[in-house]
Amino acid sequence: MIRIGHGYDLHRLEPLPPAGQARPFVLAGVQIDHDRGPVGHSDADVLFHAITDAILGSIAADDIGQLFPDTDSAHEGQDSRIFLVEAVRLLGAKGYAVANLDATVVCERPKIGPHKQAIRASIADAIGVEIDRVNLKAKTHEQVDAVGEGLAIEAHCVVLVELTNP
């Protein structure tokens, strides 16, 4: 038996402190040097958030905001890998494992291409699969809307899971 899950996340991008309130720019656990960063309660890792929601969605579980609410001070600045690892644990508890994952990051800057392999490796490690089961694409919004103006970053993820332990 197979199931599919979809995840999406968006974070506002602002200058780093002291000029702004942004966190360091981290994408799937990979820190990228950039003059702006995401704003969020945890580390604001937009890609790990989208992947977490995709995995949770595949098993019809609560979403990331329900499991790790931004009203809980315990999650302030927290590494989003913790959220993803918990989603994978819940997935396994239902007898499923990730078959493959396809994600898209949308932002104008920074360019994701130079970091693509490190990001794929980080995702594969976090979800416990071989890197050839993880795909990553990077797109821009062609200077349209907040994402296209460099004021936000978004991520989409689709994950296919298969029953391994009925």
Question: Summed up, what is this model?
Answer:
With 166 residues, the protein is of the alpha+beta class. The chain has helices at 46-58, 64-67, 81-93, 116-127, 145-148; strands spanning 2-15, 26-27, 30-31, 36-38, 96-106, 134-139, 152-163.
Q: How is this structure best described in words?
A:
With 166 residues, the chain is an alpha+beta fold. The chain has one domain (2-163): 60s Ribosomal Protein L30, Chain: A, CATH 3.30.1330.50. The protein is 28% helix and 30% strand. The protein contains five helices and seven strands; from the N terminus they run ββββαααβαβαβ. The chain has helices at residues 46-58, 64-67, 81-93, 116-127, 145-148; strands at 2-15, 26-27, 30-31, 36-38, 96-106, 134-139, 152-163. The strands form two sheets. It has a five-stranded mixed beta sheet. It has a two-stranded antiparallel ribbon with strand order 2-3. Helix 1 packs parallel to helix 3. The longest helix is centred in the N-terminal third of the chain and has 13 residues, at 46-58. It is globular and about 50 Å long.
Radius of gyration equals 15 Å
Q: What fraction, in percent, of the residue positions are helical? A: 25-40%
CATH first level: which class? Alpha Beta
Our estimate of the beta-strand percent is 25-35%
Strand order of the largest sheet: 4-1-7-5-6
CATH-defined topology? 60s Ribosomal Protein L30, Chain: A
Unreliable segments of 5+ consecutive residues: none
Count the helices. How many? 5
- The span between the termini is 9 Å
Instruction: Note the overall shape.
Output: globular
- By DSSP, the count of extended strands is 7
Task: Average the pLDDT over all residues and give the rounded result.
Answer: 95
CATH architecture: 2-Layer Sandwich
Overall tally of structural domains: 1
Order of H and E elements: EEEEHHHEHEHE
The biggest sheet amounts to: 5 strands, mixed
Summing up helix and strand content along with how strands pair, one would put the structural category as alpha+beta
CATH superfamily: 2-C-methyl-D-erythritol 2,4-cyclodiphosphate synthase
